[in-house]
Amino acid sequence: MKAWLNGLQIVALVANLAPVGVLHAAELPDMGSPAQAIITLEDEYRIGRMIVRGLRDGDQILDDPEIAEYIQAIGLKLSSQAQEGHQNFDFFVVKDNEINAFALPGGFVGVNAGLLLETRNEGELASVLGHEIAHVTQRHIARSIAEQSRSGLVSTAAMLAAILLGAATGSGDMAMAGVMAAQGLAIQNQISFTRDNETEADRVGITFLANSGFDPNTMPAFFETLGRRAGASEGMIPEMLRTHPVSTTRISESRSRAQQYNGPYTPDSLSYSLTRERMRVLSTPAGKSALDYYSATIANEADATPAQRYGKGLALMAAGRAEAATPIFVSLLGADQTIIQYHTALGQAQQQAGNDKEALATLNRARDLFPRNVPVTVRYAESLMQQGDSRKAHQVLLDLFNAVPPTPEQARLIARAANAAGDVADSYYYMAEYHLMGGDLPLAINQLKMALDVPELTSVQRAKFQARMEEVQAALPKRQRGRLATSGGNGSR
Questions:
Q1: pTM score, two decimals?
Q2: What is the tens place of the pLDDT at every residue in 132-172?
Q3: Which residue range(s) make up the domain with 458?
Q4: Among 208, 224, 258, where does a domain finish?
Q5: Which of 57, 409, 444, 484 is the S-S candidate for 432 at Cβ 3.0 to 4.6 Å?
Q6: d(CA 311, CA 200)
């Protein structure tokens, strides 16, 4: 359910909750004077991270290793063209079949499942990501907040308070509503920008698109696709059109800019097609079967594309028919050993069918071919855990995450592996890292304290945990540090 609050309601809400310690004004970003108010990149990151945490706590983020790796790869390819080298980006997928994408403070960019399925080629997907990246690099969010501060620092502080409060209480809707409520910043599951902001994001985004090897003409083409939906009834208009309105002028301007670039452009990757089919299966509503789609789409099996066959195999697995899916993935893998998705799908199918040894062999071969690849290693560790070898799962995940930073969900996975393997102290440590990724420093400190209380720690573990706890404690605001010391840092796992 979406929360819709006006500015006065938010001020009252913050005032009512502050005395019980949920949120304190002293912990808000320092806005400075009304004339010079603007938030820093660090403040933007903190706000964005907390909103993402709220979405994750609400089970709104799709934590699928194969899809996450693809979205992150294409997003980083585009953002690498930005001149803002100090700006980090994090791309994620939202479990929502509405056509939408959004930029949050701090370089967090969300893409709805429905948007990926609506695109007809990789360039159209990249055009949307490029546009959202431009909102971040041009600091449209901070500029909008600074503009609002000119009409009253109180309303701006209330907006930021509502964002932080909503995220801290696990309510992404409350966080989003806080932004919407602040005098003209329209929000509907994302930040809505002014017409000038949209024009600037189109212009900068199309540069990212072309410089990354994508056909810039895909941006106006996707605008036209969205524009055709504008004539539908209000209930059928995509969410994206309400916050990114498409006009003939906007389409014309983006087409004119696209014509200023010359190819050649990179053709669609197979990963795009495979990710799209994977998303189709994973986003199929409960009570329905993705097999119906493939039965209607694939008239002749011999004429099916590799992506369609891959999707059908996943649909069979989702329907509990892993034995029927296995030959499909064996055939795909036999035709092309270089595709990571074929290896992981075959291993998962074999595991689901009860062929434990074959699953481990498949995924172990994939690890030899693609060392420290995240989807391969995660699937291998999951298979090991299902077969009772949590200690080895812990070892392979530790080897991976010493080289590649884990996502929050992956941090929880290695915590589970460590706990199942009897490495309780390490399990607490990984859960501390999980809470740190969400910005919950007190909970992270609590987990580290529990890790330090585990008997028979090695000297290396004790030094590692103690150093991490001191680092986190130093990052706490002074007021919160005092409350934590008074309460003893109690929390829950």
A1: 0.81
A2: 999 888 887 777 666 655 544 445 555 555 554 444 343 44
A3: 423-493
A4: 258
A5: 444
A6: 38
